[in-house]
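Thread amino acids onto this structure.
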């Protein structure tokens, strides 16, 4: 195919879905004859896939866009993604932005900039081959959108209702990725895969199990109630499944969970962890948790703190509550001060550090199945199936290999 004279840089902020969409856009730009570059200073066009899940995320997007323009003032800048959907008009604050596309138009940007006629495209109706690679693991978005309308969350307003990639297309895309070493299945609300056509994530994973794909398979985050024993039974039968679970918890106080509009209680979370440990005793288990939600007094925060301290989990992603205009929580009374939220984050991070240390120690002198992720200095970083990151002195190649962790402080492992 004749190459287009234009070079394109694609950046992203936020979640794994945005990361995947970056790669999908890169593949499509290549298909339409553009050259994709990894240095934005060398690009004729800069496409930035944005996030607005928190105020900090929005601020980071604005900083990135200003940097792009300052350091490459001749580039045409395209803004897309959730912040673009929310803000819409950048003409007054960032007049250097050439085009703004919402989420419904996002995956059609290469066609639009090529001058092709296009219509709104279903955000999960595509073929993906990952021609353009920057990372060792592939990500495949199989679901988009959410209709839970949690009181703090702006995502349903900018992503729309749940839509799922049809099972046949999921399998086709997975076979397209057969030369990858690991594929992560992701979505805005992965656990809602298939609900609009009467299927479930359990049905899908059972079909994937039957296919016996030649790579490791990992799942992104799920609600506690979505990690059912039926799902765990299927995953247990998959020889290529990575026993790593990331649970979208947000709080361990039942009152706060109710104010958040979450559909489960702390008991459901504890039961899901118990079930995971029954099926996968050595699994890596992480959670997302928000502190400083409106109405979370010291007593309610202590409920979360104490439960998480004793929960059989391995790490936490901790976020201070961020007020999002247009959500119910933004108008709730008893907003928590920035100082108090910062202190609570600090307290949970101390627990998180202990959890991570225990997680590492659990694997001391154990044999681990690893894949090299990247080189860091003189060492190679490898990721285990449980999502423990270890370091080795030599690169054994592309295939999964066995190593033994010999030093928990340095995370040094040796080939066995």
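Threaded sequence (416 positions):
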């Amino acid at each position: 195919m004749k190459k287009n004279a234009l070079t394109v840089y694609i950046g992203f902020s936020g979640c794994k879905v945005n990361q995947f969409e970056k790669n999908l856009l890169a593949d499509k730009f290549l298909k339409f004859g553009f050259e994709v570059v990894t240095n934005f200073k060398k690009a004729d066009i800069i496409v930035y896939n944005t996030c607005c899940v928190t105020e900090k995320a929005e601020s980071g997007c604005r900083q990135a866009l200003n940097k792009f323009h300052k350091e490459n003032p001749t580039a045409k800048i395209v803004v897309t993604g959730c912040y673009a959907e929310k803000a819409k008009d950048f003409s007054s604050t960032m007049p250097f932005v050439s085009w703004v596309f919402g989420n419904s138009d996002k995956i059609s940007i290469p066609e639009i900039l090529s001058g092709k006629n296009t219509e709104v495209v279903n955000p999960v109706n595509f073929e993906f081959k990952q021609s353009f690679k920057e990372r060792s693991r592939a990500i495949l978005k199989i679901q988009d959108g959410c209709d839970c309308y949690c009181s703090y969350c702006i995502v349903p307003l900018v992503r729309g209702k749940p839509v799922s990639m049809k099972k046949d297309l999921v399998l086709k895309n997975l076979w397209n990725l057969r030369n990858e070493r690991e594929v992560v299945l992701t979505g805005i609300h992965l656990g809602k895969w298939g609900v609009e056509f009467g299927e479930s994530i359990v049905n899908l994973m059972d079909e994937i199990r039957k296919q016996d794909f030649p790579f490791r398979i990992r799942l992104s985050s799920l609600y506690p109630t979505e990690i059912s024993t039926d799902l765990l039974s299927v995953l247990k039968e998959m020889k290529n499944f990575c026993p790593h679970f990331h649970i979208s918890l947000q709080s361990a106080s039942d009152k706060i969970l109710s104010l958040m509009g979450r559909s489960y209680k702390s008991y459901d979370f504890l039961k899901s962890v118990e079930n995971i440990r029954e099926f996968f005793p050595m699994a890596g288990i992480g959670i997302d948790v928000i502190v400083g939600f409106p109405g979370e007094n010291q007593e309610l925060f202590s409920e979360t703190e104490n439960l998480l301290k004793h929960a059989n989990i391995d790490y936490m992603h901790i976020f201070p509550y961020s007020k999002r205009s247009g959500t119910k929580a933004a108008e709730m009374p008893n907003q928590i001060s920035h100082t108090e939220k910062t202190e609570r984050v600090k307290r949970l991070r101390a627990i998180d550090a202990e959890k991570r240390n225990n997680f590492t120690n659990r694997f001391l002198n154990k044999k681990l199945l690893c894949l090299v992720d990247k080189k860091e200095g003189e060492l190679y970083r490898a990721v285990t199936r449980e999502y423990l990151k270890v370091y080795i002195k030599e690169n054994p190649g592309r295939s999964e290999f066995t190593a033994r962790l010999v030093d928990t402080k340095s995370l040094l492992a040796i080939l066995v």
